[in-house]
Description:
Pfam families: DUF4442. This protein has helices at 3-10, 12-17, 48-67, 103-111, and strands at 20-24, 29-33, 74-85, 93-99, 117-126, 131-143. The protein has a single domain (3-143), classed as Thiol Ester Dehydrase, Chain A (Roll). A six-stranded antiparallel sheet has the order 1-2-4-5-6-3. The chain is an alpha+beta fold.
Amino acid sequence: MSIGDMLAATVPMARTLGLEFLETTPERAVVALPDRADFHNHVGGPHAGAMFTLGESASGAIVLAAFGDQLARAVPLAVRADIAYKKLAMGPVTATATLGRPAAEVVAELDAGRRPEFPVTVAISREDGAVTGEMTVVWTLRPNS
């Protein structure tokens, strides 16, 4: 099962929005939100909540790709998120997520008995390539008790 399939199966909101997981590697995750009228805002573009979910889902996909081998001993959890809406988003939008710290550094903290935190940055873009939103989601790997 791919990471995108796993997220669609376990995260009902990702499934509800019809998110498309286009690329998921430990270095980068790319997720698309199709243009659907029932997810539009008052100006005809994707609702801010849908764009937030898109970005958070892309960040979760890269976290699973980078740290999936740690799931037996730790659960990934989003700690906090910040989003800036930069330009009007119209039509389908795509979120591209990247890790803000090397995965090996995060795992080393976990190995040392600490609960690491690490940022994932996300750029949300429209089809013409313009960045319509920027997001940072801070994640942790919470050790299993």
